[in-house]
């Protein structure tokens, strides 16, 4: 019985990838990978079979249940199977589901954590998710709830925490900001496209204008949303980088 590594590639370019990952890829027999911002990482897996299993909004190369079963099948045939994911595999990456399924079928599963885009991307853009005396707490939510899951209560979350980071929220930005405006009120916001890369693109506005500003500047996935006072604070302090429009 082989071993499966759930590997986080980190967000953005490969400089955020854990240093052990290239070595794991070099000895892998098979690599199942999502769409990565920096696909040059796959060059380390030149001896492995590469299988793309990425998921884009409304366009899945393979359903999660199929991925789980495939991991088990491959682990029965090979010594080292790598499941390569962007960001961290255990932060809204469904790595926990894959690991749980593997263990249920008697297959060893090792997790290689990596920086999550929830904190690394705002940092690369110059926006801290916390700030002493301004933002002592932050939360991370998905903008794309899985089938059968409850949609996060974004506005209610901002009534409890100071900063809210939303992953996979570009396609639902109007619904997200409407919920925030209804249940919390207007708040500074940012959208960061292709964070932690040379192609990073940032827009800033109040939540009430975020969808409009994003559309005007052509922001699209992969991107994350940040809501909270730290956004405007970072802008006023001159910390925010790669801004294409700021409208407060």
TrEMBL record:
<keyword id="KW-0949">S-adenosyl-L-methionine</keyword>
<dbReference type="InterPro" id="IPR014777">
    <property type="entry name" value="4pyrrole_Mease_sub1"/>
</dbReference>
<dbReference type="InterPro" id="IPR050161">
    <property type="entry name" value="Siro_Cobalamin_biosynth"/>
</dbReference>
<dbReference type="Pfam" id="PF00590">
    <property type="entry name" value="TP_methylase"/>
</dbReference>
<dbReference type="InterPro" id="IPR000878">
    <property type="entry name" value="4pyrrol_Mease"/>
</dbReference>
<keyword id="KW-0627">Porphyrin biosynthesis</keyword>
<dbReference type="GO" id="GO:0004851">
    <property type="term" value="F:uroporphyrin-III C-methyltransferase activity"/>
</dbReference>
<dbReference type="InterPro" id="IPR014776">
    <property type="entry name" value="4pyrrole_Mease_sub2"/>
</dbReference>
<feature type="domain" description="Tetrapyrrole methylase">
    <location>
        <begin position="3"/>
        <end position="207"/>
    </location>
</feature>
<dbReference type="GO" id="GO:0032259">
    <property type="term" value="P:methylation"/>
</dbReference>
<keyword id="KW-0808">Transferase</keyword>
<keyword id="KW-0489">Methyltransferase</keyword>
<protein>
    <recommendedName>
        <fullName>uroporphyrinogen-III C-methyltransferase</fullName>
        <ecNumber>2.1.1.107</ecNumber>
    </recommendedName>
</protein>
<dbReference type="InterPro" id="IPR006366">
    <property type="entry name" value="CobA/CysG_C"/>
</dbReference>
<dbReference type="GO" id="GO:0019354">
    <property type="term" value="P:siroheme biosynthetic process"/>
</dbReference>
<dbReference type="InterPro" id="IPR035996">
    <property type="entry name" value="4pyrrol_Methylase_sf"/>
</dbReference>
